[in-house]
Amino acid sequence: MTHLVDVTPFGARFRLMRPFDIGRLLQLTLAMPRTLRVFDHAEDQYRVWAIVRNARLLEQKTPKDSLLEVGVAFLGKRPPKSYEENPGRRYEIAQTKLESRLWAAQEDSVEQLTEIVIDDNRRESRQLIPVDVLIEAYDADKIVNTEQSVTENISRGGATVFTELDLQPGAFVRMSNERYNAVVLGVVRGRHAGADGITRLHLEFIGSEWPL
User: Fold this and answer.
1) How far apart are CA 29 and CA 160, in angstroms?
2) pTM
């Protein structure tokens, strides 16, 4: 349960206490004003599928504070069939010539989604900089494991870190460094053991960038 920060017929913004990935689909149930709905005008509750388009990491002063503020785009009444086959997929809005057209204006607008393909085409090159960091691993909305580590490489949008934690792709971590006053939320995109036998985690940052 959460409160809306703002809402339009096309999307909404709200806060979450648990980490959530960009491109994930979720279903919202809310008392949407009927003047803002595009379907189910007679229903008490408005149930609409949405895609997470952006996120902003919040400062948690207490464990009860929200972790993220996310912005979502409404998709329609039903998710795509590929989501039903694998709810772990991530999506992005497909590029169309009618970019100004609302992708949620129809009940069956989900064909405008494309699945995100994981590859190694990073937005910017990584710097071979060893940075001492604290890695805190999440289970739902709680941190359950911590580890002092060091980066093998890093950029504003992600990093490779050495680890002994048993974390698999899709897991969320908080990475911080007191010296740089830096805190970022990251999601594990890959994991591999190098020729030296040490395991690396490949992290993508969500909601904020590392200050380089």
Assistant:
1) 38
2) 0.83
